Each structure stands twice: as structure tokens, then as C-alpha cells.
Amino acid sequence: MRFMVIVKANEDSEAGKGPSAELLTEMAKFNEELVKAGVLLAGEGLTPSSQGARIVFSSTEEPKVVDGPFAETKELVGGFWILQCRDREECIEWIKRMPNPDGQAGVVEIRRVAEASDFDNMTPEIEAMEGRLRAQSAGEA
Q1: I want to staple 118 with a disulfide (CB 3.0 to 4.6 A). Which of 30, 107, 112, 114 is the partner?
Q2: What is the rounded CA–CA span in Å between residue 24 and residue 79?
């Protein structure tokens, strides 16, 4: 199973203040453990929402672009991992080991990535097309 581990933003990350050298070092070590265990598929930090945009869709109007920064810092994403784990509990155990040398309070959310079997309306044709597109985007086709 794949899981998206969502690291919530905080006031420092939204202000553009990068992580400390100690945190970067500890995170690199943690990422190395994830790689050695074969569970890390992807992971990145995000720039502040002031550099982002939202596209707001309406049922009656054209999509509207809203430039950042966005309010409610605690609701924003500051970074993420995609982990391949046996189950939710394994993912939780990994994330409980995530370093926090700066000692800041924060929230990390874990969500399972949906699979084709999670969708009632997934046809074999759509599933095959999704498989081809994933292979193409990964440079395998």
C-alpha cells in the first residue's frame, strides 16, 4: 500500500525560513533509513504559499486564480513523503521515528493513496489506460 505522509506547514516554513542544518542532517539520515528499508517512493519540501496559487472552480464561472499567501497556516502542506508500506500501522511506526531536532510542535497526516480497486466505476479499459500513462510518465514506455 502507498501512503502520502503530509507534513503541515508552520509559521517558519510559511515565512520562508528554511530548516536548520541539524534538521536537514537528521532528515537526510531518516530518508536514508526509508530508502534502505525500500519504503521511500518520493519526498519533497514545499516553498511557502506566498509563491503558490489556487485554482478555484465554480459550477457557473470560469476557473479563478487566487495567488498566495494563504491564511490558516496550520491547514497548509509544508512537505510530503510517499511511502510504500505493508499497512497503515507500519507507516505510522515509520513516521513516529521522524526527527524533530528543532522541537517544534506540528502535525503530520497519513493518508492511503487510492488504488484502482477503490473506485466502483473503474472499468478495465480505464485501469489499462491509467497503467499506460503511469508507465509513460515514469519513462518506462
Answers
A1: 114
A2: 13
State phi, psi for 73 to the nearest 5 degrees. -50, -40
Residues in contact with 38: Cβ distance below 8 Å, sequence separation at least 6, in sequence order: 84
Over residues 12-37, the pLDDT tens digits come to 899 999 888 999 999 999 999 999 99
The closest alpha carbon to 6, from 97, 113, 86, belongs to 113
* Residue type present at position 75: E
pTM of the model: 0.87
Backbone angles phi, psi at 97, to 5 degrees: -90, 0
Interacting residues of 104 by C-beta distance below 8 A, sequence separation 6+: 10, 12
Cα gap 138→41, rounded to integer Å: 12
Chunked in runs of 10, what are the mean pLDDT values of the chain (141 residues)?
95 90 93 98 95 96 96 90 98 95 84 92 90 85 55
Question: Using CA atoms, how far apart are residues 45 and 5, in angstroms rounded to an integer?
Answer: 12
- 41 torsion bin: left (phi>0), alpha (psi -120 to 50), beta (else): alpha
